[in-house]
Structures are given as structure tokens and as C-alpha cells.
Amino acid sequence: MDNTALARFITSLGTLNGYGSTVYQTKQALDLKSTKPLNNDPDDIAIFNDSLNGIAAIKKIGFSTDGIIAINKEFKSASDEQPNMPGHLRNANYNPDDRTAILISNDSKDAYFPPDVVTKSDLNLIVEKFNDSDKSEQDAWKVFVEISKLQPFQDGNKRTALIAANDAYGTLENEKYLILPINDLDRAEFTLMLMRYYSAKNETDLETAFSRMMKLLPNDSDRLQELSKPIEEEHNSDLSTRKIKRELRD
């Protein structure tokens, strides 16, 4: 089995949570069925293992509310990037840890507050909307943004959303995975547009943000080329003799 496409998908998925292992390291880990080639980082190991387990879980159940929950239930490795209660739908009325706010700028006053209580009915609406759609790639990305905005789980929501969107579109089976923008700058802008989607107050703003996100994603040809491109060992460029200036800051 050629793990090239899967390695690129896991690496793309991992960028949602600062996954630091390279595509080359990730493919080695898949080929060897061992996390030893990955960075010696518990978060990387957790993201790698739990992504594989989440993929397996929804492939077994299928795209459904229970399938989405099953993905997040697998995010149980020891890591700060994982929910304290995997698969638990947030209910802030009973659990203070479920009171979530998403900062959408460096200003702590600018935050998005998802619903305090999320039920299976909320996920059912997302599933039913996709099932009633043309089931296009755009419809699959709607699954991603809507689960991400709902923030149904304590943590791992965007990773859950991307795996679920891929299952909805059938790409977990045919390995033509939906991936995030390939270029770092496009990916940063994609994240900014997702924040705009979170903060949108009306349908027009939602569609504007979503449209801008779609334009940043690789087209079918570029995506398939990226997924099948041979993976070579990556070497960092030598910056040791340079004065580094950061334009992108936390």
C-alpha cells in the first residue's frame, strides 16, 4: 500500500493544531506502523494516532451524527490538543469546562461564542443538509465549516470536521482527500476566513466568507497532484547566518 496520499492528508489535518512532523516523517510512520519516525513530541504522536483512529471509526459507521461523534471519541491520546471528554457534546449548563469562546483576533474582546449547549439534533441538521444537497466538493466543505463553527466538542473540532467532510465526500475511501491550502500563506488566510465565518451575523456574510475560503483551496488538479507527488526527505533551509524578521506573529 502506498501511504503517500494519507501522509499528506494527515500532515494537512495536523496543521490545524501545530503538527510539526514533516510529510516524509509521517509517511515513514505509516509505512513502519510506528510513531518513532515522528518528531519526539507527544502532541504530534497524539494527532497522528488519533487521526488514524478517527478515520477508521467513521469509515466503519458512515457519515452520520454518530459517525461524527465517533471521530472525536478517538481523540483520547495524552495531549493538551485533545478533549478532556472525547466524543462528549458540550453542555455548559452542567460542565464549566464546556464554556467555550474562540478568540478571532489578538484583541481579547473580539471573540466568537458558540452555543453553550450542543445536542445530536444540531449535528443532525448538518448531516441532513449535506444529504439533501448535490453532495459536491463545496457541500463537503460546508460540512467542515459548519461543524467547526458549531464547536460541538471540547477540543479537536476542526480535525473532526475535516475527517467528517472527507467521509461525506467519499474521499476516505478513494484516497482523493480534501486537504487545506498547500501554501502556508493561503492556509493562514483560509484560517482568517474561517474566523470571519464564525463571526458572521447574517447569511450574506456567511456566504462571503465561505466563498473566499473556497477560492484559497487547491483545485481538483492541484489537489490530486499534491496527494500523489513523491515524498522526499525534507531539509530546512539554512537560516543560521540570517537575521530573522517575523511578519506572521501569534
TrEMBL record:
Organism: Companilactobacillus mishanensis
Pfam families: Fic
Fido domain span: 63-212
Listed name of the protein: Fic family protein
Transmembrane segments: none
Annotated spans, Disordered: 228-250
Matching InterPro entries: Fido, Fido-like_dom_sf
